[in-house]
C-alpha cells in the first residue's frame, strides 16, 4: 500500500509551536487521527504510557519519529498522520536529538502494514526527502514528496 493512500492533506499537520513537552507533542502527532475517528483517544494514551515506561522507543533516527501503539489500543482503521515540527521537539531520545518529522502509524495488525513499513523505511532513508518535508510550506508540498513512496 503506497503512503499516499493513507496520507491526505487532512492527515498532515505543520506545527510551528515551540518548546512543546513530550506529551504535548504526542497529542499533536495523533490529533487528526483522533479527530477523524481513525484511532480512539486511548491510542494516544497508550503511546504516552509506553514512552513513560521505556522512553522514546519511536524515535528511529535523527529528526525522525514514528509514534505508534498496538492495534488493540484503539485503532479503528489503518492510517498515518504526518506531523512536521518546524521548531523541532525533544522527545528525550539520547541518541537522536530533536524530531522534526513524526509519522504516526496506526496499524490494524502486524502483517497488513508490512508494505507501509517498507515504504516508510525507504522514505526515512532518503535524507533529501526528509529535509524537503521539514522545509515544506504546505500540506500539498509534503504530499508531493510522499507520493514517491
From TrEMBL:
Residues 5-149 form the PTS EIIA type-2 domain. Coiled coil: none annotated. The keyword Cell inner membrane does not apply. It is found in: Cytoplasm. Keywords: Cytoplasm, Kinase, Phosphotransferase system, Sugar transport, Transferase, Transport. This is PTS sugar transporter subunit IIA.
